Every structure is written in structure tokens, then in C-alpha cells.
Amino acid sequence: MSPKRGSAPSEYLDVLIIGAGISGIGAAWYLQKEHPSKSYAILEARGATGGTWDLFRYPGIRSDSDLHTFGYAFKPWDKDQAIASADSILAYLRETASESGIDRKVRLHHKVLGAAWSSEDARWLVDVERADTGERLELKCRWLFCASGYYRYDEGFTPRFEGTGQFKGRIVHPQHWPEDLDYQGKRVVVIGSGATAVTLVPALARAAGHVTMLQRTPTYILPVPTEDRIANLLRKLLPRKWAYALTRRKNIAVQRAFWRFCRRFPRLARRLIRYANVKQLPKGYPVDEHFSPPYEPWDQRLCMVPDADLFKAISRGSASVVTDHIQTFTERGLALASGRELEADIVVTATGLNLLPLGGMSLTVDGAPVHLADKVAFKGMMLDGVPNLALAVGYTNSSWTLKIGLLCEHFCRLLSYMDANGHSICRPERRESDMPTRPLLDFGAGYVKRSISELPRQGMQAPWLMSMDYYSDVKLLKEDSVEDPNLRFSSHVRDVVASEPKVAVAV
């Protein structure tokens, strides 16, 4: 049965935000603060706001960045726990949306299927499906702001394993955690060694009979305190906003310094991380077998474990780590390449994500399809040759939201510039068609490598560089002019090169 097409005329909005997670709510806050007269809506394909923090329901889910930097710059995080649980983060996001009136702009069960740009009309025609009714709607907007993240919400990644059909136990993926899953006293094997696995293992170990983290390759794992004592002290001594601002500045500096240290002195960083692991694990534990990756620190994202909970579970004997390759599932568990068999009642495949750029929607510009793999990101927030489209992609080496906040501020400055100069169209254009490029996410994670050919690319230098440095982005996105030789502004009836603005305006 084909979807029903709505008969009502297309609604027009100045900005259409796609996704009601941490990025979409943040974008809406900045937009209505800086441009209160502009109309906007947030379309959310799922039935609830919160994005990642509403989607994932597996035990122990938490942030892997401190909330003083993962939270919004405009809304202080005032809980004692700097590394927070999903329910705390979700409450924070929904409180932000509620107290700002953003929640009234959210339209749930609205999935964007595609968008077509018309230069003649200077607007996007957006094809939307109501997931709850099957109705098809059309919306028109001047700008699209894609805040849907980069991974697929309805499907996690599970590699093909031999023999799964003969396994007598239960196989689950963390992205689709069953509410009825009873692991009390059970033998659980968690396949994987990333952030999800190191979160699940200690959480499951509190009730399971035993939990084994089965990994093919070790990951760098670093214990961090759940509470930020300096932040909590500052909150007692200073006004709330001052304390938050100082804590945020401190933590940004610490994150950046640690990342730069790891990249500049990888051998020393490896030794320091190993030392931190040895301190937390039982004497004689084979640290180099299970916690010494073959790559350098930050080639992939480091996993943070609050209060060393993973190491404590191992020390108690309620959890263990096995580094090996899976040959096949058996009736009782998993047969490994070493000849060992791991018996299990439940196997959790914490094996990663599937990427889905732009939420899977298709794009056309004046009738021509947009092939994302052929595009290059401009300032990490637009695509060359695609007008009036902004993207929200955060940092992979520190808190995601740090970058999102800067992108949203720059987006609002861009709108101010266009309003002041009478422009309705903004389009990045490469000055050199054969400009050298590299992958958009210069990151060694498996989920990135699997989808690298489907993603846009980045250049070798600004403004085509996908910067992962907060201070560089502050200068580029917050302090520098929005004008750029690679950015072309125009209106319905005339073209104006960005370097020759009609009106000088400080934005």
C-alpha cells in the first residue's frame, strides 16, 4: 500500500532542523536566540526527543565525555557526576527544550525522505513521511540544518558469524536492547572492546553470573573519576554560571592538551596509559595481552571508564577479558581460533554502528542528484555545490557538543550576514576542482572505515579542513568573518561575490 500524500499546501519555514537530539536542540536554541523572527521546526523521525540518549537502553549507558564540555555552553551542568548516565543527560536535554519552548517546535514521527533545491525559488522542497500514519507531506524552507548525526538509528552493525543458528542461548545487539532480557546469574559474553562494551561489562557484572569481554583487538582504556572535584568546589564558591564557565574552560584545555600529548608523544602516552591500567588490575594480570592495542593512542577514540569500574569488575572476578578470534558459534557458546570454547547463555554483539549520513535522505540541486562521496566539506558544516544546507558533525577526539556549539553560532552569524546584504542563497564552491582531499573523518574506527566511501571528504587546509581542534575552530567559526573567497552569495535576481558585500556589517 503506497503512502498517502497530504493534500494541504506546502508549509514554508525559514529553517528546517532535522533531528531532535543534542545537536538539533542546540541548533534551535541558538537560532531562536539570534533570530527570533525566523520560523523554524524540528523534524524527528522517532517518537521521542533526545536522540542517542533516548534510543540506547542497554544497562549502564553513560557519556564518555564530561558533561561540563558535552553539555551546552549556555546551560550549566549542575550535577555532581561529570560522567553522567543516559537518564540524567536525557533529562538535561528535555529540560533545555522545555524551558526554551523548543519542545513546541518538535514534530515527532516525521522522517525526511529527500529534499530538492531550486535556485529559481531559493528554497528546498522537502519530502516528509509521517511514520505513525504513512502520510506524505511537503515542506518548503530556505535552509536545511541536518542535525541527525552520522549513524543509523534503526540498525546496529553485527558482522556475520558462523553457526549462530545452532546457538541455544540469546543473541542481542545493544542498539536494540530487549526490555525482557533477564541476565541475572547468567553467563554473558560481550563481543567488542569499544565504548559500548566497556560500559556494558561492569554494568552487567553486577547481576550476571559472569561477564566475558571477547575482543579481537584491545582498545586503550583509561580510568577517570566520575566526579570533577574542582567543578563541584567551584560551584560552592562561585555563582553557578561562573563556576560552569571556568570548569568548561579548564576541561577543554585538559582534553586538548591530553590529545596533543598523545599524538606528539605516542610511546610515552602508551606507557602512561599502561601504567594506569596496571595500577587498577590484579598483580600479574596479562595487561599487554588484553590492554595493549597495535595502534597509537587516538588513532581510535580512547575509552574512558568512570572510577575504573571495568577494572574493578575484573579484579572482583565477576568479569574477564579474552583476546581471540571467533571461529563459530556452538550450541553452548563460542568456539575460538585458539581452540578454546566460551560457554554463554547470552551473547551481546557490541560490534559497532552503521553510518547513515544526512539520516539517509536524498538530495538534488536544480534537478541533479547530490552524490555525497563527491562532495567536500566547507568549514566542517556545509558541502561544496550544495546551497543553504548546514551539517552538524561534532568532534571525535573530545566532546561532540563543543564543535556543535561553534557551528550553530557560525550558522547564525551567516544568516545575519545574508539578511544584512539581501542574500537568499549561500553556496560553497571549490576554486580548484582537482583539490587534494582525504576522508572526512580521519579516524581509524571500524564503523568509519566500513562507510568511508559513502561519506563526503575534506581538504588539506582551511576552510575545507574538518578541524578537530577547538581553539582553531573558535578562531575560524566564532571570530573570523563569515566571508570567504570559496563562499558565493546570491539572491533570486542577481549574483554577488562574497568578497564584494553590499553592506559592511560586523557579525
UniProtKB/TrEMBL annotation:
Belongs to the FAD-binding monooxygenase family. The keyword Transmembrane applies. The chain crosses the membrane at residues 12-31. Coiled coil: none annotated. Signal peptide: none annotated. It comes from Pyxidicoccus parkwayensis. PANTHER family: MONOOXYGENASE, PUTATIVE (AFU_ORTHOLOGUE AFUA_8G02570)-RELATED. The keyword Flavoprotein applies. This is NAD(P)/FAD-dependent oxidoreductase. Its cofactor is FAD. Keywords: FAD, Flavoprotein, Membrane, Monooxygenase, Oxidoreductase, Transmembrane, Transmembrane helix.
